[in-house]
Amino acid sequence: MASEDVKQRGEAAAVSTFVNLAGEAKAATEGVKSPRHALLSISKSLAAGGIAGGVSRTAVAPLERLKILLQVQNPHSIKYNGTVQGLKYIWQTEGFRGLFKGNGTNCARIVPNSAVKFFSYEQASKGILWLYQQQTGNENAELTPVLRLGAGACAGIIAMSATYPMDMVRGRLTVQTAKSPQQYRGIYHALTTVLREEGFRALYKGWLPSVIGVVPYVGLNFAVYESLKDWLIKEKTFGLVQDNELGVTTRLACGAVAGTIGQTVAYPLDVVRRRMQMVGWKDASTVVTGDGKKVALEYTGMVDAFRKTVRYEGFRALYKGLVPNSVVPSISIAFVTYEVVKDLLGVEMRISD
To answer: 318: helix, coil or strand?
Structure first.
């Protein structure tokens, strides 16, 4: 009898232990996502970033094309003189389609670029925040503007490097005219032609100033946008916050401020990059010297391109095309579109989280 009682108690204890272990295992795995769920979440995040990039660039495509034309036009043969005149000239000489010339190539580049950029920022933010919390010993620590700047810089470098050949080809297709020395029929033809005739390195012309420029540009975009949003929400400034969220108009304004600051700081590097891409292909690299001779410029590197641009055209040349690029910063549209699409797709984490 006593042995049966001991046996029953032993069985009860075993069952209890099993139940407790099962409960602990369930609690431990509740926060762990299945591989399928994680893959779906990543796919949605990449899709949101890609859609954001495509929508934002298409919305400002005419201004984007005018910016590039202003950046590379021959200073002694001015065709585009300002935003309004430049857009009217494109309309008159090339029609409506001319305003969106190169946009297909631009979207083919910007969609994967934007997808990688936003996703990389989220991952870099999580990694940097974890390191910061470990270093400070404060599990409740939040990202600071400097840490956001670092995460944005990492995201920009990764995205730029991954899609740079497409950006180089897009630049050439955008400025291509009937008189251009090479006529590219499309993205694939341009890529293969450059690779065959100029070599693999030509696909990465201007990469260094691009990477250097993307650090302050993308870094400041994310840092200013997120910090400004965070400040408005915490301070509940001007009654702009409803249910701990900012409206679309307010977020667009935050993005516009971030984009304007970022591109103003990094713009000279963008001009130099574009000019290095066009060397040997278009008359944009041709200048007229003091004695009236035309000289086709060749750049030995980023510093040389800066020096020759300032020497022959003055410091203002480093900011050619900045005004049309500042009218409607595409980054503001991209930020808001990204967050809206992620809401629609039901992705749990946003860039603010």
So the answer is: helix
